[in-house]
Specification:
This protein is mostly helical. About 60% of the residues lie in helices and about 0% in strands. The radius of gyration is 46 Å and the shape is globular. Keywords: Membrane, Signal, Transmembrane, Transmembrane helix.
Length: about 240
Amino acid sequence: MYFRSLSLLATFACAGLTIAAPAAPVPAPAVPNVGAPALPNLPVPRSPVDTTVVTGALANAEDVAKLPALPVPRDVDHPTLPEVFKTIVIKVNPIADKLKTAVSIKAEIDATVVVDLLHEIIDVLSVAVSEVQYIVDNPVDFVLSIDGVVLALDAVSAIVVTVLYVIFSTLRVVVSSVDGTVHDAVLPLVANIGALVTHLLTLALTLVPGLLVLLAAAVGGLVDTLYFLNIAGVVHVLGLTRP
C-alpha cells in the first residue's frame, strides 16, 4: 500500500513537469538584407546659450522686469558744456574789445554805448546759462566734447578760465575808467554779470565736480580783480581767498 502511493505521486509529478515545460521557440523567418536607406545630413545642433553671460546673470523674468527703462538719448544738436563756454569766448571777445575802446578816452566815454555793450554780455551769458541748465536737466549721454572731439578735463578748464579772464579783466577796465553817473549805471550791470557767471559755474561744477580744483588753481591772477569788482559769488563758488 505504501509503495503503491509513492508510485502514484511520482506519476503525477512527472505529468506536472511535462505540462509546465515551455514550448520550444519557433525560429523567425529569415529577412533578406536589403540595406537601410542613408539618412540625410542633419544640422549640428548649436551649443545651448549661456544666459548668465548674455543677460548679465539675470536669473529669471522677475529680474528682467526690475531693470530700469533705457534713457532717452540727449539731443545731439544741443551744444555740449565746452561748446557753450567756447561760444561765450567767441561772442564776448569782440564786445570786450569794443568796451575797452569805448572807455579808452575818459573825456569821450558815452554812457549809452558802455551800458549797451554790457547788456550784450548779459544776453550772451543768459543764453549760456539756459543751455547749461538744459544739460543739467538732461545729462544722458553727457560728454565733454567740441565738434565731436572729446576733451580732457584740463582742456575744458582752460576754456572756462578764458571766459573768466576775458569778462572780469574787461569789467575791471570799465569800472576803473568811468565815474559819476556812468559809474552808477555800470555797477548794477557788473553785479548782474557776476551773478550770471556764478550761476554758470555752479551748473558746470554740478556736471563736472573735478573742474573745481583746476579752475581754482588757474584763476589766481583774477582774485584781486574779483574782490575789486565785489563779485563775491565767484569767489565763494571757487573757494578763492585773497593772497
